[in-house]
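Help: why these numbers?

___
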Amino acid sequence: MSVLLPLCLIISMFTYSNAAYCLCKEGNEQVLQKAIDYACGNGADCTQIQPTGACYQPNTVKNHCDVAVNSYYQKKASSGATCDFNGAASPSTTPPSSTHLYTKTHFIFQIKSLFF
């Protein structure tokens, strides 16, 4: 029983957050690709959207754009970066879908591995 309370608290921290994310808008794939190129060339962790990366699927420009600009924004927001990318992106309270799914699934798998 003493393990369940801390476990529930940890899970709730990862399942609810009012943190700001940065997501690409629906639009022209060339515009989204420019946002990806900028983000990846300026500090975003884009290994996630490489063919062997955790966020490669779905393999769409929009999905990859979400992951790239959000990575950039999370790393650079504290130093004044904005979530605009020449109008290609905007702030959101919802995380990029594939990153969120991978993170939750991976986290829950790790917790189950520790306790069960």
